[in-house]
Amino acid sequence: MMILRPGMANLEKVISKKHVEGMCRLSGFVFLHDNGKKRFAKHTITGEVIELTQKEYDLLLSLKDSLQPADKICSMGFDVLLNKRYIVSENYVEKDHYNDILAILRIMRTGKNRGFSKYTILPTTACNARCAYCFEYGFVPETMTYETADRVVDYIIKTKTDGKIRLEWFGGEPTVASDIISYICNRLTSKGVEFASAIVTNGSLISAEMVEEAVNVWHLNKAQVSVDGKRADYELRKAYPDKRFTYDVVMDNIARLADSGVRVVMRCNLDRSNISGAEEFFDDAYERFGKYENVRMYLAPLHQEMKLDSITTLHQSIMDLYDLVAGTPKDKLIDARIPRGGMRYNYCFYDAMDSAVIIMPDGSFTNCENLPAGHNWGNVVDGVTDKELYEKLRKGVYLDDKCSKCCFLPECTATRKSVCPVTNDWCYECKVIDTVYELEHLKISDVKTDDEDDGQNEDDPC
Ligand code: SF4
Ligand code: SF4
Ligand code: SF4
User: Fold this and answer.
1) Most buried residue among 2, 116, 162, 218 by CB atoms closer than 10 A?
2) Structural domain boundaries of the chain?
3) Best of 409, 418, 422, 434 to mutate for ligand 2, by most ligand atoms within 8 A of CB?
4) For residue range 367-412, what is the model confidence (pLDDT) as tens digits?
5) Whose CA is nearest to atom 1 of ligand 2?
6) Is 263 exposed, middle or buried (0-12, 13-18, 19+ CB in 10 A)?
7) Which residue's CA is minimally distant from atom 3 of ligand 2?
8) Got the DSSP string for 61-130?
């Protein structure tokens, strides 16, 4: 066996077992993959990836459906697979063990920090584009008032964790209310609050003056710009009523942001009809941004596609597109967004209520930007106003039966299946496609140290 990617040291310490007795089987937290040339095993608790010999692979495969005594496995020289919990005692209960480790992780993290470290703020739900797929479609647009912005600042000062915090500007199109962003940032700075910010934007309104403001006042270090593939697909989908906002304008604005040192990640939304133009988009993006070290892109299925049984085909097509550029100069643009393996203690904002909050334009809180209705449990003036709902949302994530038997549970957490509106019945099949891609394109440089990765999902996967 050869370690291709080491696991998280803290989690290895928690799960390793010096001595195992009795009959044993394959752990339910192991994903096996044979591509005809190499054989891989991934432990989804620690994130470790190993390359197996044929003998080791055959043993693990056989232990999926049958038992073997621990002493026989040791006498064959495979004790390390027992110590690292690829092979476990027949009485090992994955679900219980998972819950115990999760509790330890959460205690370790709460001990480190108190208060919120991340605030996602929607200065407006208005937008200058008209995407047919917009989740805001049908909502009456609302923009934050200066009075509410003052309350947001007070709330942040009252509830923030020690040290630097992260602000994320989301909408609608947050730059439609760039004055509110500047107002909040200026007030935080005047109160001595240290922060860095990120923005999720369509990029169309980013002028030279705004970039200067963004860098110096918002302390912007990351922008996620949503795009829709090649020029014709982009312009059709964004459907800006003001025709001055074109594909070229947005691409130029991306360069403008990158030139000022902001890291730009393009999220290219794909569905069954624009995926055929994705290659043309790759070519253009590479021509424009190939020279930049701070521009990357990833491909994501549109939310509406997630509920269709064609999602696995779309998902596979996305991986095939990544494959197409793998090993070519264009590869440097790709940030495939396959999360680094290993256990997470949260999936997104929904189950990170102790460390992050989403603030709507009226100052109310939610913990899922795609489920604003019925998820408002408080506001910046009164704090928690609906204790019952707050507790229900905080503790209400249940472990789905399918997840409790799935090797990907430590990576998905219970949240993905039990509450996320963007999940689907093909989550396992999509996870397999992602994981096979991950194993076959492992970059050791992607590995984070324990200090850099405390198990919290920093980016919202939705
Ligand atoms: S750019 Fe974003 S917020 Fe604006 S209409 Fe499109 S999806 Fe909605
Ligand atoms: S959400 Fe799907 S892939 Fe993830 S653990 Fe549950 S069943 Fe498995
Ligand atoms: S990942 Fe799902 S549950 Fe979490 S914020 Fe996004 S849509 Fe909501």
Assistant:
1) 218
2) 2-92, 120-333
3) 409
4) 887 765 677 889 999 999 988 888 877 776 788 999 999 999 999 9
5) 417
6) middle
7) 428
8) HHTTT--EEHHHHHHTT-HHHHHTTSEEETT--HHHHHHHHHHHHHHHHHHH--SBSEEEE-SBS--S--
Query: Phi/psi at 417 (nearest 5 deg)?
Result: -85, -35
Rounded (10°) CA dihedral 350, 355, 358, 362: 130
Q: Give the residue whose CA is nearest to atom 6 of ligand 1.
A: 131
Q: Which atom of ligand 2 is nearest to the CA of 408?
A: 5
Q: What is the pTM of this model?
A: 0.89
Q: Take residue 413 and report the two structure tokens written for it.
A: 């957490």
User: Cα separation of 203 and 254, whole Å?
Assistant: 7
In this prediction, residue 321 has a pLDDT band, given cuts at 50, 70 and 90, of very high
Q: What span, in angstroms and rounded, lies between the C-alpha atoms of 272 and 359? A: 33
Helix (H) or strand (E) holding 34, with range, is: strand 30-34
- Is CATH 3.20.20.70 the classification given to domain 120-333? yes
User: Once rounded to an integer, what is the mean pLDDT over residues 211-219?
Assistant: 98
pLDDT band at residue 457 using 50, 70 and 90 as cut-offs? low
Which amino acid does the sequence have at 107?
I
Enumerate residues 6+ apart whose C-beta is below 8 A from 372. Answer: 139, 360, 366
2-92 maps to CATH 3.90.930: yes
Pairwise CA distance, residues 146 & 344, whole Å: 37
pLDDT tens per residue across span 268-308: 999 999 999 999 999 999 999 999 999 999 999 998 888 89
